[in-house]
Prior knowledge:
Blueprint: E1 15-18, E2 39-43, E3 61-67, E4 79-80, E5 91-92, E6 105-118, E7 121-126, E8 136-142, H1 145-148, E9 167-169, H2 171-178, H3 183-194, E10 212-216, E11 219-226, E12 229-237, H4 238-248
Parallel strand pairs: 9-12
Antiparallel strand pairs: 1-2, 1-8, 2-7, 3-6, 3-8, 4-5, 6-7, 10-11, 11-12
Amino acid sequence: MSSSIDPSFSITPIGRIHTPYKEKFAVPRQPRLAPSASARIELLGDANSPEAIRGLEQFSHIWLLFLFDQNLAAGWKPTVRPPRLGGNERIGVFASRSTFRPNGIGMSAVELKGISQEGNQTWVELGSVDLVDGTPIVDIKPYIPYSDAILNANGGFADNEPDVLPVIFSSEAQIALQSHPQRHHIQSVIEQVLGQDPRPAYKKNKDDNKEYASHLFDLNVKFKVEMGSTSVINAVNQYFIHVTAIERF
Length: 249
């Protein structure tokens, strides 16, 4: 018995996520690699109801299904070059977790920290995620350990956790962070994110003289990778940069 698929089928997001990652660059390539970086889902429309998530608090982890909305217009190709293979070797898109996919759908298993209510707004509180701030969430499903956790599974070319670089803060960066009200928390997140070496894959295990920048929280974090470690050069308030740019022009 055959069935037809309506090519006009569409998906309506049920929420959007709020994370420290304000741009694609430096977002961890998997969840839980930056355990200090918590997140939350703002439920939308009919999904914004305590009834929709009644009983979800029984689970320690959940599956998030989401859209790679910033990549949808770019399309996709049958093969990709995963960062874990150095960005040089091509494999099939379905043998990867590339963000450039036929339907732009991603999924992550994340820690559920709780449910909160602020007026008429329902929030789902999460642990570490690998999503850009504002990513549309299209579904939430409970993580079932006896079924979803498979012992002795083979992880292919991504069987081992990535190496982590030591992160060193310059005196200028330390001074910049001292006045931030969330200094210790933000410093932990910066260490965990930049320790993953978010540079392009072909730069892995290589020193270069290039200065990179990542927008984390409300900060523009500048860094370099040298001598096998990441050096945080500065962490400037993004609002200050924005105002300065307006005043200059």
